[in-house]
User: Fold these one by one.
Assistant:
Number 1:
Amino acid sequence: MPGQGTVVQSGLSKESEDLMTASAGATIDVVVDRADIVADQVVSLVLRRADGLPFDSWQPGAHIDVHVGDGLVRQYSLCSSPEELDHLRIGVLHVPDSRGGSKAVHALLPGTPLAISAPRNNFPLRESRRYLFLAGGIGITPIIPMLEAADAAGKEWTLVYGGRSRKTMAFAQQLEDRYGLDRIRIVAEDEVGRLDLDQVLGMPRAHMLVYACGPGGLLGAIEERCMGWPPGALHTERFVASTLGAAAANAPFEVELARTGTTVTVTNDKTILEAVEEVGVRVLSSCRHGLCGTCETQIISGEPEHRDAVLSEEDREAGEIMLVCVSRAAAGCPRLVLDL
Amino acid sequence: MTVSTHEANVLGEDPFETANLLDPYPFLGRLRDAGAVSYLESTGSYAVAGYQEVYEVLTDFETYISSGGLGPRDIRKDSGWRPPSILESDPPIHTVMRRALTGVINPGTVRALREPFTPPAEELTEQLAERKRFDAITDLAEKYPLRVFPDAVGIPDVGREHLLPYGNMVFNAFGPENYIFKQAFAQGDEHAAAVMRNCQRENLDATGFGAQIWKRVEDGLITEQQATLLVRALLSAGVDTTIFGIGNTISVLARYPEAWARLRENPKMAKFAVDEALRLESPFQKFHRTVSVDTVLGGVHLPAGAKVLVFLGAANRDPRKWGDNADEFDLDRNASGHVAFGMGLHQCVGQPIARLEMEIVLQQLLKRVSTIEPDGAPAPILHNVLRGFESLPVRITAG
């Protein structure tokens, strides 16, 4: 850490709880090329491949897993340019009360070797004529490559970026300099008060998609206002799994594995994924907290209660897929039949 | 940038003529073939019937606005017969109303309806399965939504008989003021007053959707008048359309015995069958939008203030979208993208309720009826914008 005194604070990244118990595939060896403080408690890390080769191409909205040591794996959105594959950049926020991830990441010095996953994308930028980007705090990171893509494609777009104060808001100045004040609206709470979402979202626009990334409270407020927008207009990425699901009751239910021909009981202290793995059936999974989308499973029958932070509103409505790591059977549905 | 444009093809045929209402598809085929955008002399409006153009009009809610009303007249100039509904409003007025409604009716709240909605369907289909013949409209499609939906909204028992006549007025007013319209409005004041009474806070059951909409007044999101209008919207849009959705689904399946047999083997496919039937026989066939600024659609210049008649039922059978068998029922077709519930900003907010009702009825019928076939010719209803049947006699074997 360049010039940061003695103790590296414990801190974290995108999620506070996503200790990964299963690794999803091969890792890539990289080396930290640069570590820069870009805002209060935010460090930007530039990573290059240890073998000097370019990274595989990726799309705006993608994230990588970073193996930060001691078995910890954290997910960070990429905020570099998909056009420049010689390096990847992530922005890391330090949060004082977290359990480890960003403490370790904050401690990384240039030259440190690291293992990461290939980029994965749960937050892809869909084709549209217009975009409204909304970022809260470190939620700016996945949005940055989206701005570049929308701008390069000549789309009509604006960014509204809220934070506590300018000095906590990573990349705010660079974005203003690069795209101008017509496109970039920085809303720093200590200068102009909190982001007025009624003003930002009160007038839906045709053929405009809304991409929002930030803390759960902000996204909840955005979701409520976007109920007045066309269905499917809003796309979000959360830092932690939806609190809605966490509060719900965990009633036991049965899961029939249609291809395997067995039935398992999912007791209230277990997830579907755990129950299925116990009987020796393999399910590809990664974060196991409803954040990465790896364990998506087809529902043959039954009503799921989605507790993930990945599926779109349309997917939730269709009720044909679920993330078995967190989602359960809906109240009143004693049995799910899954394509496993 | 210049856009080359041509004049709209002028059509003398009247979509609201009796023959075209009773059997719309030959006319709709001619309308689609006439070009991307036609001009209808009979109504003085432009018309779109191809999927691409219909989709564009529905999704570009800034250019094709709703506050001019869904009928042929511009209600901004010439006030309509009732205070404008959510369907007849644009952002930002529309936005708060839609937020209030979506907060109350969404997949989460609708899922809880499966339990109360199932026993009435079991009871109805059990009774029907004991008969060799019945009328799928009067004995089933009309009965079921009227039993479950007003309860879900929470209106009193008194005055429910006005719901169907009121819905008939609302939807027929999306067409011209012809004899069908006049007939629908014959006792209009009485029906409208009765329905409006059921929209008042004090008349609504505390647990229904109606009371939950009124709760948003306390939250400060909507006004009392808007709450009344939103409950009215549920009552006017939620009954007729679902009746026709059920009736049309059965009318299609009675003609496709192989599909029925496959559904019997796999009743989980019922929701896909309903979706494909809605594509093929869309209950809500057409309505108007109003052009807000001079624009070009399908190479045709449309002036601000013009009315555009949007043919949902034609878009849902456009071979360019659905292939050469667009006029056929295909249980394996992915009907996703059909516009039977509209598309975009104004897409039917009650869609999950309607789908639930239709799926439950079909699944219960499949449980008890091994074959179903037409028993004489169905009688299509004479309606300006809805497609459905007055009578649909069927012959069944139970089991």
Number 2:
Amino acid sequence: MNSKVQHTKIEAIYACVPEQEVLTTEYSLFAPEEARLFTKNTGIHARRVAPDNITCSDLCFNAAAQLLTDIDIAGEIDLLVFVSQSPDYFLPATSIILQDRLGLRSDCMAFDISLGCSGYVYGLQVVGQFIQSGAVRNALLLVGDKSTISTAYQDKSTFPLFGDAGTATLLSFSTDSSPWFINSGSDGSGKNSIIIEGGHSRNPYGTYTEELLDFNGNKHSKSHLHLEGLDVFNFALSRVPYSIDQALSEANKSMDDVDYVVFHQANGLITKSLSRKLNIPLTKCLTSIEQFGNTSSASIPLTLVCHGNDLSVHKDVSLILSGFGVGFSWASMFLTTGFPITKLITHA
Amino acid sequence: MEINEFLGHLAEEFEDLGVFELTPSTILKNIPGWNSMHILLLVSMIDYRYHVLLSGEHLKAVVTVNDLFELVKEKQGEF
């Protein structure tokens, strides 16, 4: 579907990553040449990995707490949305826990959205709808994942790919902001291409064994993330260009009007393939995968933060943000905006 | 679409082949260091160069470079 969001401004984006950096060359299942080829094709030199006692919500909390310290607006937050596929608990919703931890008012609405790599653009869209309706003046969108909790060490297709990150985006009502044009969609026939089968209602813990199963040489149990790389690749190349074209068309713009494109940081090969299919110079494609790996739902805001210092010199930038992945689910958005305040912090 | 051009495009993608020479009869799985990343590289190249997006199902029957060449030609004919 196509939609338009008006009167909504992205004021600030903060990101928090764990302190521990793990290099691709440190993954013991890669021979040196294999590690070199992996880095060459995925772009990933390093990723950040959260320790056992740190959750995605802790990373998002740190990002949000720093943001609310720098911009004194905690008492005026009307809505908190947490987008993640690694919540703290089965229930209650993590957003409600974060409302309390951040000291937000009790009449602040809070809810979770369970989406992965498309989640940031979906989150912007949902929050934007509340803001443009006039019901909400200021909102926090907390987006992130601790994907490393679900990857099996013996699975070369996932373990060296994913990193952890949490982000906080402050959005506010603004009469002078340019409209956003968004295309979004879903295709549940791709559910088995990125899936953790075990642990919830369909296959509750205790109803299956945790034995490692072999998937073309990669081993993981039903409690681990299973990723069919070729399916995801085909999905991205078939859906994302159309989605971006739709967003641009709704905005009456062409790719020539776009300053920068931020794709979900799935891997470098997908970014390269999408950019050449859409005829976008790679220099227009902002990335963060080199230092942080695939950070799932956090990858778009984290990438914006990584380039915040360079982009903040522009009065306005025109951006395409395009998230795609687990579900399958996708969303692409065109916006022109003064670049928000950004900050990257490390969770010690 | 010619087989030599196709071989050239494949070799460009697999630039780490060193002295290994690709021919129409090369068995893909025998390419040194062959892994799932190579499959993504060739699918990406074929999509970009020949506007054909191959799925895992399409590739199941592919053994040699020539099988791949013929598959791409067949799929091009479908459009």
